[in-house]
């Protein structure tokens, strides 16, 4: 059954499914389903969209996006969330690649579409604001039944574009099957049910915005409060007023929230725990939240698989610091060397993944599909190691590795040492060319407010904790590290 909302409209029609934080607008499961039925009819019968047609969306988190998602479940249309932080040429590339028949944009992002040469060739265009008014009118009309289209499990509901840190972005096919099994995996490792509540401030063009908590909670009939953007003080306010049972953020977000003036007095007692992804959370920051009575669940995932793949129980947050935990229930893994042979315990190797939450491939890109999926296994490009108790530790992305004097160097290992310095607030390391060693490390570092540190002192710290060939040859201090739309440090900009 692909139509979640017709079920919850039957079981819990008056329960609020989703709220928009900034406007206070809400939709119950009954009204949401009614809107989605009417929209599904309009898109297929009046506009003539067919099974598999793409619908591109350029918008913040909003109620209209959720109704579109519900309509896509009913019709087999494929949503293509566009990143509103991209430039017009980058948007144009995505439009050329996805070839949508319909594109919806918030008025504030319309200029991006207007500057994209492909836009005039798109058959149907609609503003999100116009859609909102149309849906309000539809909610006032009599019930408009819609018989859901029968969909194969491997039919996509999203095309989610990767960040494109190397080369052009690839559109990962995110299927109805992945949607279901990700929800099951999530519910089996976290507390996800019809009483679950969350606040979502991750962007809708990222799998984290849709599939870490939003779709699992909607699948289970829970409550989702959407925020249009991350603002630390507003999020802290929402975490108190919305009484969420669970919340997801990246370490940068959680540090900014913890630094808010009202954090010490904030009542966060409704939270069972916070899910952390994107990168390992520094131990002092974990301790800050634990002291507040909020447990931290480190996790790990990726757009093409899951995304909810690994989870570290909060009871192990300190004992297994730096670990992403163990695989979720329906996730198979294998760790292999460059020859495809499984590696021994505590030996770095590439993470391979298999399970019902795995993408069938990339939209219109058979070469990338064949490169990533071999004999049923998805090759992640991540170097990991597994300890004797089965806990997984991310070493680094294979593409981030550089070779210095014949030795493999993983920047993430150096970054962990740099961030452990009490005066360092953030760090990123890349490999740069060197005549003698081939490549050497260059560290970009930010300091805690009011602190000073010079290059020699920082290198001396590294010498204490790292092999000599891993110590960065160059150090550059920055006021702030560039971050991508998902809150991760953007090494493409640093390079």
Structural overview:
By secondary structure, this protein is an alpha/beta fold. 31% of the residues lie in helices and 27% in strands. The longest helix has 18 residues, at 29-46. The termini are far apart. The mean pLDDT is 92.
Produce a short descriptive summary.
By secondary structure, the protein is α/β, with parallel strands linked by helices. 31% of the residues lie in helices and 27% in strands.
Provide tags for this entry.
495 residues; alpha/beta; Rossmann fold; GMP Synthetase, Chain A, domain 3; 2 domains; 14-stranded mixed sheet; 27% strand
Topology, element by element:
Elements: H1 4-11, E1 16-20, E2 26-28, H2 29-46, E3 54-58, H3 63-75, E4 78-81, H4 88-98, E5 102-105, H5 110-114, E6 124-127, H6 128-140, E7 156-161, E8 171-175, H7 176-189, E9 197-200, H8 207-212, H9 214-219, E10 223-226, H10 232-241, E11 246-249, H11 251-258, E12 273-276, H12 283-291, E13 295-302, E14 305-311, E15 323-327, E16 332-336, E17 349-354, H13 366-372, E18 373-374, E19 377-386, E20 392-397, E21 402-404, E22 407-409, H14 411-420, E23 424-434, E24 438-447, H15 455-465, E25 474-477, H16 491-494
Parallel strand pairs: 1-10, 3-4, 3-5, 5-6, 9-10, 9-11, 11-12, 12-13, 24-25
Antiparallel strand pairs: 1-2, 7-8, 13-14, 14-15, 15-20, 16-17, 17-19, 18-19, 19-20, 21-22, 23-24
Mean pLDDT: 92
Shape label: globular
Assign the CATH class of the largest domain. Answer: Alpha Beta
Rounded to an integer, what's the Rg over CA atoms? 23 Å
CATH superfamily of the largest domain: ANL, N-terminal domain
* Binned strand content: 25-35%
Kindly name the structural category.
alpha/beta
Rounded to the nearest angstrom, the distance between the terminal CA atoms is: 47 Å
The residue ranges in which pLDDT falls below 50 over 5 or more consecutive positions are none
- Largest beta-sheet details: 14 strands, mixed
Oligomer: single chain
Percent of residues in helices comes to 25-40%
Number of H/I helices: 16
CATH architecture of the largest domain: 3-Layer(aba) Sandwich
CATH topology of the largest domain: Rossmann fold
């Amino acid at each position: 059954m692909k139509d979640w909302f017709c079920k919850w409209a039957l079981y819990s029609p008056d329960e609020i499914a989703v709220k928009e934080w900034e406007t206070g607008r809400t939709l119950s499961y009954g009204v949401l389903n009614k809107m989605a039925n009417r929209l599904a009819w309009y898109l297929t019968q009046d506009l003539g969209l067919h099974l598999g047609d793409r619908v591109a969306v350029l918008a913040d988190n909003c109620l209209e996006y959720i109704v579109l998602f519900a309509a896509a479940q009913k019709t087999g249309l494929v949503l293509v969330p566009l990143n509103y932080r991209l430039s017009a040429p980058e948007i144009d590339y995505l439009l050329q690649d996805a070839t949508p028949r319909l594109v919806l944009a918030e008025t504030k992002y319309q200029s991006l579409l207007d500057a994209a040469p492909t836009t005039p060739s798109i058959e149907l265009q609609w503003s999100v604001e116009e859609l909102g008014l149309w849906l309000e009118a539809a909610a006032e009309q009599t019930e408009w039944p819609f018989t859901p289209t029968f969909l194969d499990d491997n039919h996509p509901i999203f095309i989610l574009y990767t960040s494109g840190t190397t080369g052009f972005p690839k559109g990962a096919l995110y299927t109805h099957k992945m949607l279901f099994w990700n929800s099951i995996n999530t519910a089996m490792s976290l507390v996800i049910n019809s009483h679950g509540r969350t606040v979502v401030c991750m962007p809708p063009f990222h799998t984290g915005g849709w599939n870490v908590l939003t779709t699992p909670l909607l699948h289970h009939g829970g409550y989702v409060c959407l925020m249009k953007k991350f603002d630390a003080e507003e999020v802290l306010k929402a975490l108190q007023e919305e009484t969420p049972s669970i919340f997801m953020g990246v370490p940068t977000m959680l540090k900014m929230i913890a630094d808010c003036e009202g954090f010490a007095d904030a009542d966060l007692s409704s939270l069972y725990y916070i899910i952390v992804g994107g990168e390992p959370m520094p131990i002092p920051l974990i301790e800050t939240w634990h002291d507040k009575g909020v447990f931290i669940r480190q996790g790990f995932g990726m757009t093409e698989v899951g995304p909810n793949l690994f989870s570290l129980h909060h009871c192990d947050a300190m004992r297994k610091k730096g670990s992403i935990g163990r695989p979720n229930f329906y996730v198979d893994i294998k760790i292999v060397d460059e020859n495809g042979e499984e590696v021994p315990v505590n030996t770095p190797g590439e993470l391979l993944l298999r399970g019902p939450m795995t993408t069938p491939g990339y939209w219109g890109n058979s070469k990338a599909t064949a490169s990533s999926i071999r004999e049923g296994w998805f090759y992640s490009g991540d170097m990991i190691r597994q300890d004797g108790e089965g806990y997984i530790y991310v070493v680094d992305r294979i593409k981030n590795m550089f070779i210095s004097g014949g030795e493999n160097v993983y920047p993430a290992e150096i970054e962990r040492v740099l961030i452990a310095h009490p005066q360092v607030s953030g760090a990123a390391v890349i490999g740069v060319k060197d005549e003698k060693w081939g490549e050497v490390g260059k560290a970009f570092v930010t300091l805690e407010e009011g602190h000073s540190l010079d290059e020699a002192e920082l290198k001396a710290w590294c010498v204490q904790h790292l092999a000599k060939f891993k110590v960065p040859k160059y150090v550059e201090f920055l006021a702030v590290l560039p971050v991508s739309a998902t809150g991760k440090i953007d090494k493409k900009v640093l390079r």
